[in-house]
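Supplementary notes (optional reading)

For those who missed the lab, this is the record we used. Protein: Acetyltransferase (GNAT) domain-containing protein. Length: 128 residues.
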Amino acid sequence: MGLAVRAATLDDHGSAMFLLDGAMLDADAEAVRRRIDAGSVFVAVAGGDPDGRVVGVCVLDGREIEQIAVRRERRGRGVGTALVEAVDSRVDGELTAEFRESVRPFYDSLGFEVREAETEGRFRGVLR
């Protein structure tokens, strides 16, 4: 099954919120809607068809990954990697992220330089 990554549209808002909520991320629906309008939300869709089922979402704040989530049954299959690679190719400069220790292996595997963040128990990664 192929995969396509594209900028989210307002039609993707419900799917994006479903994935973000399912990943227990603190996502404000109106803020995500504004980010979609600004072109700062990307979705991975199944089947390589841009109109396919949304299986992953990445929300940016400038050059920082604010939130990323993948449908549970698609985790470990390259969806998150495809999202980060697509987002990285679209931003100028370094891509950054702040995250919990539990997802550090994901960021390590993508080549992020990781160090402790100011917030206790969190890490900050930079992809150069």
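If you only remember one thing from this example: Strands lie at 3-7, 41-46, 54-61, 64-70, 95-100, 113-116, 122-127.
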